[in-house]
Amino acid sequence: MSSVNLGSWVHTSSVISQATRSRSKSKPLSFSPVSIPLFYRNSKRSVSYVSAIVTKDEETIQEEQNKNSSSSLGFDFKSYMVQKASAINQALEAAVSLREPLKIHESMRYSLLAGGKRVRPALCLAACELVGGDESMAMPAACAVEMIHTMSLIHDDLPCMDNDDLRRGKPTNHIVFGENVAVLAGDALLAFAFEHIAVSTLNVSPVRIVRGVGELAKAIGAEGLVAGQVVDICSEGLSEVDLEKLEFIHIHKTAKLLEGAVVLGAIMGGGTDEEVEKLRKYARDIGLLFQVVDDILDVTKSSQELGKTAGKDLVADKVTYPKLMGIEKSREFAEKLNKEAQEQLAGFDPEKAAPLIALANYIAYRQN
């Protein structure tokens, strides 16, 4: 069964202003009003962020918005995500079964099957279906993305990295199995991810499978996720880190894997080069959006609400969007990224694009 948490999903109805991204060290950020996206013009509610802690009134507003969030599109996002998460969880359970050596497989399964929102594999499947493919064509790729994501979490939590003891509301892998086994579990998930795509993908041409493997490898290597991690580590405690470097960190550390998930799905589904590139731009925007929101949540939510240690970026003296821009301007920047991402879906079938639109909104307005 699915363990995805969708109770906090909010579909916004009003965009007041958007942040204008600056890549220059000398130019300050500027902000300008923009028109409200078409999908939201018929809605009458808006999201209000008043304080760092969600009050009862805000919870009531969010609950009301959750009830009506999908109706304007005629798309039930919550049901969609529950169905996709259930299918993904079943596929992951089958892919990584308990076998000898038991210890390593127990460790792999402990983190892989610990729950989570399954946003990345859901994006992979949605992109596949958007370009005309079938879910089954991209399921091994979607599972591979989640295996790699889980690997990154296991390694992130290690004492030599973020030194965290809580993940998805449970003790982290190294707390339960020890650092040595945790490292090996991450390594095993990474290796098996590529094996799973190569061996288990059906009804997709070998050319597309090889192309997909190449995309995913690039997304997580020294030009992708690892690059972002290294620059992030080297930037801790530095006072001269600017928005340009922060964007580099987050595009590589977070957005690249989300980009890989979406592009992989589009490739497996038979998408044209033009479709793949549009979805790449969409994914890059929501990937950066994911991290901006993550930075905001780290300083506005409790550990219990997040299911992981809150405030750790502040303790580690990491540079974040709220630290450089402030909370409100970070939220405006998140609105801008969400709008730009959805603009990339304009040329696709609206019915097939609905899951990706809803996923972008979920990423933008999630509460954990």
TrEMBL record:
Which PANTHER family does the entry link to?
Answer: FARNESYL DIPHOSPHATE SYNTHASE, OS07G0580900 PROTEIN
Q: Name one GO cellular component term.
A: cytoplasm
InterPro entries for the chain: Isoprenoid_synthase_dom_sf (IPR008949), Polyprenyl_synt (IPR000092), Polyprenyl_synt_CS (IPR033749), Prenyl_diphosphate_synthase (IPR053378)
Q: Which cofactor does it need?
A: Mg(2+)
GO biological process terms held by the UniProt record: carotenoid biosynthetic process
Pathway assignment: Isoprenoid biosynthesis; farnesyl diphosphate biosynthesis; farnesyl diphosphate from geranyl diphosphate and isopentenyl diphosphate: step 1/1; Isoprenoid biosynthesis; geranylgeranyl diphosphate biosynthesis; geranylgeranyl diphosphate from farnesyl diphosphate and isopentenyl diphosphate: step 1/1; Isoprenoid biosynthesis; geranyl diphosphate biosynthesis; geranyl diphosphate from dimethylallyl diphosphate and isopentenyl diphosphate: step 1/1
Any one Pfam family here would be polyprenyl_synt
Q: Does the keyword Manganese apply?
A: no
Q: Which UniProt keywords apply?
A: Carotenoid biosynthesis, Isoprene biosynthesis, Magnesium, Metal-binding, Transferase
The molecule here is called Geranylgeranyl pyrophosphate synthase
SUPFAM superfamilies, sorted: Terpenoid synthases
Q: Molecular function terms in GO for this entry?
A: geranylgeranyl diphosphate synthase activity; metal ion binding
